[in-house]
Amino acid sequence: MDAKKLKPILIISYFFPPCSLTASQRVYSWAKWLNKFGYYPTIISRKWEENLKTLKDVSIPSSNGILHEKNEEYEVYYLPYKGNLRDRIYQKYGESKFRLLRQGLTFLELFLQYFYNKIIPYSNIYTFAKELMEKKKYEHLVISGNPFNLFKFGFQLNKKFGVNWTADYRDAWSTSEINDNSSSIFKRIIHKLDTHFEKKWIATASSLSASSGPIGKSIEELTGTKSFALYNGIAFEDFDVVKNKTKLPVFTITYIGTLYDGQKIEVFCSAYKKFIDELNGPKTQLLFPGLAFFGAQESRIQKAMKGYETYFSCSDRIPRKEILQLEQQAHLLLHVAWQGYKGIIASKIYEYIASGTKIIVAPSDNGAIEGIVKDSKCGVVFNEEAKIVDYLKTEYADFLKNEYVQNDVSQSNVQQFSREKQVEEFVKQVLN
Questions:
Q1: Partners of 46 in the beta sheet?
Q2: Are 210 and 347 in contact (CB under 8 A)?
Q3: Looking at domain 3-231+419-431, what is its CATH homologous superfamily?
Q4: Considering only Cβ atoms within 10 Å of each terminal Cβ, which end of the chain, N or C, has fewer?
Q5: CATH topology for 236-415?
Q6: β pairing state of 227-229 and 359-361
Q7: Do domains 3-231+419-431 and 236-415 have the same CATH topology?
Q8: Burial class of residue 262, CB neighbours in 10 A (0-12, 13-18, 19+)
Q9: Do 317 and 198 contact (CB within 8 A), yes or no?
Q10: Could you give the CA distance from residue 252 to residue 327 in angstroms, rounded to a whole number?
């Protein structure tokens, strides 16, 4: 479709490819599919020039100048990123030095960002968006968070231009149930400010989208702005790059993505060790590709699996193509839900579904994750250690008999979660 005949919308997102972090995929899917529904998106993001191998790589400054890329589906402006003093200290020394200084600088930035844009390292996003909107009228403005201070830009652009805008949440902000906001006076101050300004800024949005219904409802109750659930969804085409889909010769269970303290991985690790003991050393491996990126979580796995080092491994971040191949070559894909929290949906669950590999959720959230896995008919959920052990033994027996069966991703139970369907819902809720 001719881009000149499409209605223009403006999207602000800190994360966008070539950034390799999962957060970039949500807006990227909108960019690819919105043209099918009559819209041409312009995306504003920061420059991403480094291969992110460690957390401190995010703080590396970019080259100067604005990079503009345009195609038939969308256009994107990548703005230079310089960072601030805290970023430069962290980038040079990592976690090893000047911790108290970095904490102090972080508090100052978090406090002052509510009142002064210039304290925000990526405030050039607001300045550039304002310049674009002075030259061209956009049908709608969408801002995807986090960082949640991007919503301040939506508030300010709405005041200046009267543009309707949507606040898109990948995670909850001040209403988050998983953040510890009471452990110090500094966190209590920031949380109080977060709550005040979230309510103020989002109240000016015409709608808000969230990665799950429960997250959306909690924000709606705070701000009064109508919410709707917009899943990250499945990108089936991502797996087109995978050429070798043959299952690995070792019974392989793989956990992909970030791990947080609220995810009780110890439940599965304990069951996995019992499975190994009861079968007297099966031919198996438990893989955590990329988890070494988060040193504390790698140490957590090492502690939980002590004495079973030959049966698991954590690695540094690896190229996305290799991750996709591993997801299809593994025999089981492990997901650990947040117990007691029913609205936290890790976007990797959709990639798991698209791979066709069986999913095991252990433990479950008894909520959104369990619903998605059951509705897609692509996996099983367990909370009890004994049932996890029994399931692993059954799957291993099938592995030994070479009787493994992939999920059929062409079925409607899977297709309902496609990113195209999610963009269709976005257009229906926001733009029509």
A1: 79
A2: no
A3: Glycogen Phosphorylase B; (3.40.50.2000)
A4: C
A5: Rossmann fold (3.40.50)
A6: unpaired
A7: yes
A8: middle
A9: no
A10: 10
Residue type at position 423: V
The span from the CA of 198 to the CA of 222, in Å, is 8
User: How far apart are alpha carbons 385 and 306 in whole angstroms?
Assistant: 18
DSSP letter (8 states) at residue 96: S
Query: In angstroms, what CA-CA distances link 170 with 17, 53, 304, 393?
Result: 16, 22, 30, 36
pLDDT number for residue 242: 86
What does the pLDDT average to over 253-260? 90
pLDDT tens, residue by residue, 172-200: 999 887 666 666 787 788 888 889 999 99
pLDDT band at 84 (very low <50, low <70, confident <90, very high): low
Q: Whole-angstrom Cα distance, residue 385 to residue 362?
A: 9
Pull the structure tokens for residue 318: 């690896």
The two tokens of residue 223 are 């701000």
Q: How far is the C-alpha of 153 from the C-alpha of 196, rounded, in Å? A: 16
Contact 41, 7 (CB under 8 A): no
Q: What is the pLDDT of residue 60?
A: 77
- Per-residue b/e over 95-115, b at no fewer than 16 CB within 10 Å? eeebeeebeebeeebbeebbe
Domains in the chain: boundaries: 3-231+419-431, 236-415
